[in-house]
Amino acid sequence: MAWTDKRPMSPHLQIYKLPLTALISISHRITGVINFVGIVFLVLVLARAAGGEESFAFASALLSSWFGYLVLFGFTFALYFHFCNGIRHLFWDAGVGLDLESAKKTAPAVPVAAAVLTLVTWIVAIAA
User: Fold this and answer.
1) Residue 121: what are its φ and ψ, rounded to 5°?
2) Cβ–Cβ under 8 Å, residues 80 and 117
3) Is 4 a residue whose pLDDT tops 90?
4) Phi, psi at residue 98, to the nearest 5°?
5) How far apart are CA 74 and CA 66, in angstroms?
6) How many angstroms separate the CA atoms of 79 and 14, rounded?
7) Half-sphere exposure of 91 (CA within 13 A, CB side)
8) Burial classification of residue 31, based on how many CB atoms lie within 10 Å of its CB (0-12 exposed, 13-18 middle, 19 or more buried)
């Protein structure tokens, strides 16, 4: 068969709308990667801060800049998102909530809980 056939092609992600459960699953994997990169970043900044007074000043300036706060805020959300979805997976491992209806009901709770926990953490951290 030649590639010149005008048969219809199967639709891809541009056509199909992924269900929320699939988006949460993909996001769980993405936040796992973000967590890894974020932890490496924090270890590097802490190692730099331990290098002396000048290095500490640089690390402090980096983390207290608007960009530093943005990175730390995103990292906090990624940690909580991965944590909340991990709890959901623990329930599944115990055999609870494996049916499609339960999965669809608990999926929206993950980003909401992550957002609430992130905001509470940052409010408490700023107030301290």
Assistant:
1) -60, -45
2) yes
3) no
4) -80, -20
5) 12
6) 29
7) 13
8) buried
Q: Which of 44, 104, 85, 86 is nearest to 68 (CA)?
A: 44
pTM of the predicted model over 0.90: no
Share of the chain above pLDDT 70, in %: 94
> What is the domain range of residue 112?
20-127
In a domain, 65, yes or no: yes
Q: How many domains does the chain have?
A: 1
Distance of alpha carbon 114 from alpha carbon 107, whole angstroms: 12
Any domain includes 75? yes
Kindly list the distances between the CA atom of residue 24 and the CA atoms of 12, 52, 57, 100, in Å, as whole numbers in the listed order.
19, 42, 39, 14
Do you know the residue count of the chain?
A: 128
Place of tokens 């709890």: 87
Cβ–Cβ under 8 Å, residues 49 and 59: yes
Residue 34 backbone phi and psi in degrees, to 5: -60, -40
To the nearest 10°, report the CA torsion of 100, 15, 74, 27.
30
The 10s digit of each residue's pLDDT in 71-88 is 999 999 999 999 999 999
Task: Tell me the C-alpha distance between 51 and 48, whole Å.
Answer: 5
